[in-house]
Amino acid sequence: MSLTTSAPHRTGPATAGPDRGSLTATARIVAGPGGSLPVLESAGPFALRRTRATGPYARVTVVGAMSAPLGGDRLALEAEARDGASLRVDSAAATVALPGPGGAPATYEVRLTVGAGAELRWLPEQLVSAAGSVLRTRTTVELAPTARLVLREEQVLGRHAEEPGTLVSRLTVRRAGRPLLDQELAIGPGAPGGWDGPAVLAGHRAIGQLLVVDPEFDDPAGRAAESRLLGEHAVLAPLAGPATLVTAVAPDALALRRALDEALGHLTGGR
């Protein structure tokens, strides 16, 4: 197994405080069959730790090594589950997007690859958009035809009693090289008008989605037949492929997590 810590490239002073310079860093995870982790490369704010797992999964927990992302940062996290592998990635704490000097936006890219007969569970903690921050996130997923995926994303608009920053989040998923899902959400003071209106968040301060891709959904008996509400805060929608998307809004992070956990249990049967 390759276990390394890479020094980030900084465009300013290498300090840990809020006035540190912007940084560029990419961390990598590669999982193989049998719970192996041939590559585990930490970088910048991403300290990757192998943690105890239940079931067939190799589990990696992302631990924050510094405050990030700050304005001007360019961060990336890559994870690959090779053919036949089972990988679960989570995080030790929420990620807080903070403003940087000069108001420059930060970028955070997540690139996921899931091979034939492999499964990836991508279950990080919430992303908090703090007041004054500007963050652009992009998650890109490449799936083999027989791959399985559970992906959860959660955004919280501001810390307690705080106005949100600007957040632009895009999720693109391809299966067997063909588009499965491509959507973008823009929220906060720098987003187009109407983001907090009744057609989008309706005043809620937490939003999230859960995407489950499973070849078993190709069987009509194994998937949701139509869109429907799940409780008070979530809606389930089958996609044009072996996938189901759950979208939820809630007044706070706790209610959001409860709604998505309930949906996950419903879709996976507690697996």
UniProtKB/TrEMBL annotation:
<keyword id="KW-0996">Nickel insertion</keyword>
<feature type="region of interest" description="Disordered">
    <location>
        <begin position="1"/>
        <end position="22"/>
    </location>
</feature>
<keyword id="KW-0143">Chaperone</keyword>
<protein>
    <recommendedName>
        <fullName>Urease accessory protein UreD</fullName>
    </recommendedName>
</protein>
<dbReference type="Pfam" id="PF01774">
    <property type="entry name" value="UreD"/>
</dbReference>
<keyword id="KW-0963">Cytoplasm</keyword>
<comment type="similarity">
    <text>Belongs to the UreD family.</text>
</comment>
<dbReference type="InterPro" id="IPR002669">
    <property type="entry name" value="UreD"/>
</dbReference>
<comment type="subunit">
    <text>UreD, UreF and UreG form a complex that acts as a GTP-hydrolysis-dependent molecular chaperone, activating the urease apoprotein by helping to assemble the nickel containing metallocenter of UreC. The UreE protein probably delivers the nickel.</text>
</comment>
<comment type="function">
    <text>Required for maturation of urease via the functional incorporation of the urease nickel metallocenter.</text>
</comment>
